[in-house]
User: What shape does this take?
Amino acid sequence: MVVEDDFIEDEVDQPARYPPNSVHVQFFLQYVRLCEIMGLVLSQQYSVASKARRQNAIDLTHSDMALADWLQNCPKEVYWEKPRHHFWSALLHSNYYTTLCLLHRAHMPPATQEHSGQSTGYPTDAAYPSRNIAFQAAGMITSIIENLQAHDELKFTPAFIVYSLFSALIMHVYQMRSSVPSIVTATQERIQVCMNALKEVSKVWLVAKMVHTLFESILGNKMLEDRLQKAAGKRHKKPRVEASAIPEKEEQSQKRKYDDIEIGFPNGPPVPQ
Assistant: This one.
């Protein structure tokens, strides 16, 4: 594992011309550790092998604890807080909250899942804490993006920021189903922040324009919003039928339209109801 001393380039008889910047060093070290955790989340929650087995609560707990430990031990130099915004800490924490969102999104129930005594459109926080954690993570991503935009720093962000915005928007669309007016209003504002950010990032990363166009088509389209919300909790349903058991007619490929595009969920687009 790379350590701080690896960045010291002093020679025996000559000091380094450019001494290491502590913020840059800590950013790289923490980013590497975060990428390790993200790799764990992807392999356990989104790999081909993970689709063949039922969800494992131990995997969720293990990854969640690893992320909590990362945040708790994050050095002050790169710890992001809204009052003291810094580009490198903002970039680092946008990746952290994207990973957190990615982890808990895989353990969310469908937004349309019916529960007795429920009027919110999704289960209670006590039954599915992952839903609330994913919402909070998406909110933090949007807050960081808003700060980067306010400091005119979005143009310096790497391409991964597009996926962070994509992840946040998925959760914001899901949260629009809430029956609490204040939550819906706040979520609409967050969606607008993300859409504006995508438009700005698209000047540097063209893929952002594609994501912006995708969500322009989804937002306001009840059918597409419902499909996206159902897909968010797809992994909570029973395992899919083996491919061999699917009738040949259903396997025929059709021309893809926006309502047929896979929205990036582990089990593919929603099954027709």
